[in-house]
Amino acid sequence: MRRSGIVDPRALPIAVGYLPVAFAFGLSAVAIHLPGWFAALLSLLLYAGASQFAALHLLAAGTPFMAGIVAIWLINLRMALEALAFFRRVDWGHRKPWLALLLTDETFVAASLGDAIGPGAYIRLVWLPYATWVLGTLLGVIAGDLLPVLLRHAFGIAIDALFVTLLVSSVRADARTVWAAAAGALGAFLGSPFGGWSLVVGMVLGAVTYVIAAARTEGRA
Amino acid sequence: MKPFALLSFILASALGTALIRFLPARYAHRAADPRLQRLLQGIPAAALGALLVTSVDTALPPHYLATTLVALALAVILSWRPGGVLWPVLGAVAVACAGLALHLG
To answer: Chain B partners of A206 at a C-beta cutoff of 8 Å?
Structure first.
């Protein structure tokens, strides 16, 4: 796969998928009478989709200030796992940890599969989704509901298709990852009553399953 | 909420999330236990499986769900050959557009 140039090709489907979601976020914020600057600044500084939508819900429901903030931190706790996994893998030492601020679920997965990448390749992967997220929010705030439902849904499929494509490529490289993915899916399904925590449940279950699968295959060898 | 309270809300949630991302990245090189490394190797694929489940909205009408599944099946077929992620993704989006337009049309 060619990774030179300003943008990593894997960033394009992520950005295409982010645009309607960010647009919807901007729209939703305005719809519950929050100021446009609030939505734009939240996208700029927080950059964490699920927790941003949760923030709107919490503010609209009149949740106490600290409870809302703690809820957002808890939803985003999975990013600690992702940052640890990614930075441990790329082995950049203690350099450039601030680059983790642009790590999301999608860019983490895209950046973690295949060969370990350097900081330059990482930036080529993450800048466009981030810029799209902020721009999409601004467009949502400014433009209102212009995107037809059909296109919104079709663009939304881009992210799922990216997940599927990355999963196939991961399984081709290491067949044991299919067990991790299956357990991750099962964990997320079983953890769905826990809301934002279902992703964490899936990730932990999948990672433990991978350890077991790896130990079994190495024991046989 | 008043503007100052909203601004405080943004800054507090963003600062906490920044630390959640930053601190593990800053000290990742110290975690040298091979078992932890193996555990972390499984996380990307586990996250993919979990994300796929959480992103499928079963409350969608049946034709949306069917179109999504067909589009993702095409993505699997197209991604089986090495050659990047763009074609599988564009193929899936094209199928989604066509499938939904056919239904609505």
So the answer is: 42-43, 45-47, 49-50
